[in-house]
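Tokens as discussed.
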């Protein structure tokens, strides 16, 4: 057996436990959708693909660990698993749209460095999620990825993303502080809409565009950034307090004076080992004798 077909066990409302054989590689679309009392499943290391809505509506499923062999996680795979508390993702490269949307009990999220992208609303309305550490491997986070995560207080953003997309953190009411990575150029409209507890955001010089209503409802927000940057003008135009930060110092190698000439260096002290000192003394004596001749 290598594949559990589409909707193979969909709506099996008395199914509580599943043990899949080590030969299974694919779970088809809706394979276990609506198995309302399913509370335990062990996924084999042979598994590579979890299809769309495979476990959608499994409302008693509490924990899930995706083995490193799983590289594909379909849209809505665990949508509405309202008892799901812990998720560990090891080998998946793209977390599908709405994959964990409305997993309202989710508090523990572990993502590996295999993850490259988080699709639209992947973790939207995960109302109990308080902290997220996104791995540095992530290159893009799509619209609404954490929208409605009302308890989210802290999140580390990876350094290689370029855009904070539409409604990514909308209605994350508990979020108080966030630092936008250097290299981000754009913050889309409504990105932090109604983040009512947001007190400080650090915006780097690389940001040159902030969309409409990006921070609407953030009444206590202070924008931190480099003086004279786009961040400062945005704060002034939108009535936010501004906290100036020092510009990052330029990294220079073996620098020279502006005219290209190196300054002379005076050596004031040389320490030589005893043997070297003796050789130097002999050399000077011979040199002086030759000069006298």
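Sequence:
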């Amino acid at each position: 057996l290598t594949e559990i077909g589409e909707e193979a066990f969909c709506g099996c409302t008395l199914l509580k436990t599943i043990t899949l054989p080590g030969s299974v590689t694919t779970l088809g679309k809706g394979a276990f959708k609506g198995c309302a009392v399913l509370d335990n499943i062990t996924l084999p290391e042979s598994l590579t693909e979890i299809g769309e809505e495979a476990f959608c509506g499994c409302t008693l499923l509490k924990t899930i660990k995706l083995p490193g062999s799983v590289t594909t996680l379909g849209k809505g795979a665990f949508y509405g698993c309202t008892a799901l508390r812990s998720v560990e993702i090891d080998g998946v490269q793209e977390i599908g749209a709405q994959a964990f949307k409305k997993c309202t009990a989710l508090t523990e999220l572990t993502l590996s460095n295999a993850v490259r992208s988080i699709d639209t609303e992947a973790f939207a309305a995960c109302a109990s999620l308080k902290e997220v550490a996104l791995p540095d491997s992530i290159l893009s986070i799509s619209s609404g990825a954490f929208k409605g995560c009302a308890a989210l207080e802290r999140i580390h953003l990876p350094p290689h993303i370029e855009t904070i997309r539409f409604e990514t953190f909308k209605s994350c009411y508990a979020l108080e502080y966030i630092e936008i990575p250097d290299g981000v150029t754009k913050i889309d409209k409504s990105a932090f809409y109604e983040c009512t507890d947001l007190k400080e955001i650090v915006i780097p010089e690389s940001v040159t565009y902030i969309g409409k209503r990006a921070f609407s409802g953030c009444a206590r927000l202070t924008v931190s950034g480099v003086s004279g940057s786009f961040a400062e003008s945005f704060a002034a135009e939108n009535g936010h307090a501004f906290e100036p930060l020092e510009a990052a110092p330029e990294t220079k190698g073996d620098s020279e004076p502006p005219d290209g000439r190196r300054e002379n260096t005076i050596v004031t002290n040389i320490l030589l080992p005893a043997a070297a000192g003796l050789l130097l003394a002999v050399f000077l004596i011979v040199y002086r004798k030759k000069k006298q001749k």
